[in-house]
Amino acid sequence: CGGFNSTLFRSAVAWIKDKKSKNIEVKLMPIGKKASAFYKRSDLEIIENFEDINSNDRQLEVSENVKNKISELFESQAIDEVSILYNKFVSAIAQEPTFKSLIPLEQSQSEEGSEETTNSSFEFEPDKNELLEYLVPRNFLTQIYRSILESSASEHAARMTSMDNATRNAGDMIDRLTLTYNRTRQAFITKELIEIISGAEAV
After folding, report:
1. Whether 161 contacts 92, CB under 8 Å
2. Which H or E run includes 91?
3. Is 57 exposed, middle or buried (0-12, 13-18, 19+ CB in 10 A)?
4. Mind listing the pLDDT tens digit for each residue in 167-182?
5. H helix or E strand, kind and range, residue 97
6. Would you say 99 and 83 are in contact if contact means Cβ atoms under 8 Å apart?
7. Of 49, 86, 141, 164, which one's alpha carbon is 20 to 30 angstroms from that of 31?
8. Is 87 helix (H, G, I), strand (E, B) or coil?
């Protein structure tokens, strides 16, 4: 996939160094074979590895498992902040390493830009706390699943671009080699003709 994984890992290493410089302990939960292989060589604490995410069903299952693990760790106060790093799909030729905060939840740009306050009251059915207990884990699951899907789409795009470049480069190389072959062949034929003509003149 070209620099698809290495670019993401460089961003992760820079982020981890920044956290460590602030004396913040970092724990990892790699998703995918490349991430698992990369972080196994590090001295960082690995909570759990999720390597097999090749099928759509498996991606949803892994998202559910990651969400459950995050909830378990947060409720036991083993962690107090969760961020996810993934390759965001921008276009078929561009992928962008992106950090997203799951805990605390990121505020949307529209909310950040709005300074207006409202005194409107809302009624909830069912109870507000009951709704939050259901919606917050669902939000975690949605954010994680979306990140996996974005990264998967980005990988397919990067792979397609890399293969397209490789095909084009191979075509260019074949053209150059064919030209070299034809020139060499023509030179060899010309040399033989000169030798034949020179021999005939000598006779």
Report:
1. yes
2. strand 82-91
3. exposed
4. 999 999 999 999 999 9
5. strand 94-103
6. yes
7. 164
8. strand
Q: How close are the terminal C-alpha atoms of the chain, in Å?
A: 65
Sign of the alpha-carbon dihedral angle for 49, 10, 17, 103? negative
How many CB atoms are closer than 10 A to CB 97? 19
d(CA 89, CA 157): 8
Q: What is the distance between the alpha carbons of residues 29 and 79, in angstroms, rounded to a whole number?
A: 12
Structure tokens given for 80: 């107090």
Going by C-alpha positions, the residue among 12, 162, 148 that lies closest to residue 88 is 148
Q: How far apart are CA 160 and CA 149, in angstroms?
A: 16
pTM: 0.70
Give yes or no for a cis peptide into 126 (omega within 30° of 0): yes
Amino acid at 172: D
pLDDT of 57-71, one tens digit each? 788 888 888 888 888
- What does the chain come to in residues? 203
Q: Which helix H or strand E contains 57, and what residues bound it?
A: helix 56-75
Instruction: List the beta bridge partners of residue 83.
Output: 101
Tokens of 68: 């459950």
